[in-house]
Specification:
The complex is a heterodimer of chains A (181) and B (217). With 181 residues, chain A is an all-alpha fold. Chain A has helices at residues 4-12, 16-38, 41-57, 68-89, 111-125, 129-139, 145-152, 156-174. Chain B is an all-alpha fold and 217 residues long. The chains are: A mainly alpha (181), B mainly alpha (217).
Chain lengths: 181, 217
């Protein structure tokens, strides 16, 4: 299976199918990350599209020696931050109180798993944005802490500090979901 | 992380360990320290719960929009050639600016000659802002093109497009020694009239020296 970097290189050489492979690989995890960060499906879809538009527009700047995934998530994370800043300036358009949870209504999961998943989703949604960003980039996007530091512009210790706080809060919020011994 | 003495590893070290990014030192310590083990267990429990976060599909319309944009990008005519290396961009930009300054100096300071030089003969009406912007953004698709090299030998009086000038500059940056400069000058139309260069009192050698182009570059 071709690596992301190989696929993107082939796309830059005009192979449209190679981009389709990347789109297939990233559409769900990337969209889920964005949706969990902005909490609104319409806004998340706009940012999802804009992320790929920027990838296409800046394809000449991409350095194939660097991993593609972190580059993609860096673009998305920047767009998410822009969106949050816009909302901060417009109080009438703040983050919605009831976020849309990606896991809710997943017909593939059985009802108990769905319910548990929704609780985890709510706990993650309740994290402060900076902690949520680090947590999702590590857990869902699979970026290393060093890559997260690069993507978010924070230093490694700050990233680890945010992750520590996120883990502590999630642990406190989700401990009741542990099976009793 | 025990009660008797401070742990030699921090919680940050333990987080790195829990995610497979930690060193052996943290692992060795955690194996013997109950509190650190407990912290690791907590992180691992959260990691298990995070697996319940199911990914979600974006709307098909959003994906189709991206597909359509990718198709457009893939079918855009690509110019064959070598991309301008980032290391050359400052030189290319500097060369552009020097040429602009020299041209401006000549325009302001030229002495009345026996025969005025037709403007199009030595400077082409390029959009400098566009060219500089292209140079700064990395000239992503500009490379060695046959027509850029041929500029030197042509006798046409047509003016040159931004792309032709940018090509010539890119070519100049990729060629060794003075050839590059000649091609760069060709791209700017300087080549067309050697007398024009004489009247500017600038020789190729001086220009090369100004641009820092030396043997072996």
């Amino acid at each position: 299976m071709a690596s992301d970097e190989e696929c993107f290189g082939r796309f830059r050489d005009g192979d449209e199918g190679a981009f389709e492979t990347l789109l297939d690989r990233y559409r769900r995890p990337l969209f889920s990350f964005i949706l969990r960060m902005v909490g609104h499906r319409g806004d998340a879809e706009d940012i999802f599209q804009e992320t790929f538009i920027r990838v296409l527009h800046h394809r000449g700047d991409y350095d194939p020696r660097r991993p593609f995934g972190p580059w993609l998530y860096t673009i998305a994370a920047n767009l998410v931050r822009d969106e949050r800043r816009k909302r901060w300036r417009r109080p009438e358009d703040q983050m919605p109180e009831s976020l849309e949870f990606p896991g809710a209504g997943n017909p593939e999961a059985d009802s108990m798993a769905r319910e548990t998943g929704a609780k985890v989703d709510r706990a993650v949604a309740a994290l402060p944005a900076e902690q949520r960003e680090v947590f999702l980039l590590r857990e869902q996007a699979g970026l290393s802490f060093k890559e997260i530091a690069e993507a978010t512009g924070a230093n490694l210790n700050t990233v680890l500090g945010r992750m520590h706080l996120a883990v502590k809060k999630l642990r406190a919020d989700l401990a009741h979901l542990e099976p009793k011994e | 992380m025990n009660n008797k003495q401070p742990c030699p590893v921090s919680e940050a070290d333990l987080l790195l360990l829990a995610y497979g990014e930690g060193g052996k030192e943290a692992a060795a310590h955690a194996a013997e320290c109950p509190r650190c083990r407990s912290f690791l267990d907590e992180v691992r429990a959260v990691r298990e719960q995070a697996k319940l976060l199911t990914p979600t599909e974006p709307a098909e319309a959003a994906v189709n929009f991206v597909r359509a944009e990718a198709r457009k990008a893939a079918t855009q005519k690509r110019r064959p050639g070598i991309p301008l290396s980032p290391a050359w961009r400052p030189l290319a930009l500097a060369a552009t600016l020097i040429l602009v300054v020299v041209a401006a100096w000549y325009a302001l300071d030229r002495k009345p000659g026996p025969e005025p030089i037709e403007r199009a003969a030595w400077i082409s009406p390029v959009n400098l802002a566009t060219l500089e912007s292209e140079l700064e953004s990395g000239l992503p698709e500009i490379g060695l093109r046959g027509d850029a090299l041929e500029l030197e030998g042509t006798e046409t009086t047509e003016t040159y497009s931004d792309a032709a000038v940018a090509d010539a500059l890119a070519t100049a940056a990729s060629l060794p020694t003075g050839d590059g400069l000649e091609v760069a000058l060709a791209g700017w139309g300087f080549y067309r009239d050697e007398e024009a260069l004489d009247r500017m009192e600038v020789t190729l050698a001086e220009m090369e020296s100004d641009l820092g182009i030396t043997e072996g570059m």
